[in-house]
Amino acid sequence: MIFAKKAMLAAAGVAMLASAVVNAETIEVKGQGVKFAPEVIHAKVGDVISFRNMATHFVESVEGMWPEGAPKMLSAMGADYDYAVEKEGVYVFKCPPHWGARMGAVMVVGEPADLDATVAKYLEVAESVKEAKPAKGLLKKFKESGK
Ligand SMILES: [Cu+2]
């Protein structure tokens, strides 16, 4: 009996996993001039962020603006790139060669309970770390977008 119950629980687990995969989406982010389109992304765990039209661009996580334990982003110059979303939270990434022109984006995964505090913390990082400064405008844009 115990074995049967375990097997049922395992089957239920597989079914849940399967439905999560079915609901997973591919979200396309394009390099457009010296911007990512879109610049504000809403995603969920299981989605894939698909970077396309990346000639002259690449993508990298912004230090200090990344959920703890989430895999970092780093693509090759000029290449398409797929990033599988594994963790809830707020992410900021950049195109390093065009970061001075603010080519980056803010991505929210799931519904983080500490969203406002995290955005406030990232804004502090943008104020204090020179390398992170271009994120300020993106985070403000994100706040204005109404989340
Ligand atoms: Cu770029």
Description:
The protein has 147 residues and is of the alpha/beta class. The chain has a single domain, classed as Cupredoxins -  blue copper proteins (Immunoglobulin-like, Sandwich). The protein has 3 helices and 8 strands. It has helices at 2-23, 115-128, 135-144; strands at 26-32, 35-37, 40-43, 48-52, 60-61, 81-84, 89-94, 104-109. The strands form 2 sheets. The protein has a 4-stranded mixed sheet with strand order 2-1-4-6, with no helix packed on it. α2 runs antiparallel to α3. The protein is globular. Bound molecules: copper (II) ion. Copper (II) ion binds at residues 31, 34, 57, 95, 97-98, 103. Residues 31, 34, 57, 95, 97-98, 103 line the site of copper (II) ion (CU).
Topology:
Layout: H1 2-23, E1 26-32, E2 35-37, E3 40-43, E4 48-52, E5 60-61, E6 81-84, E7 89-94, E8 104-109, H2 115-128, H3 135-144
Parallel strand pairs: 1-4, 3-8
Antiparallel strand pairs: 1-2, 4-6, 5-7, 7-8
Helix pairs in contact: 2-3
The structure holds copper (II) ion (CU).
Domain Blue (type 1) copper: 27-109
InterPro entries: Amicyanin/Pseudoazurin, BlueCu_1, Cupredoxin
Protein name: Plastocyanin
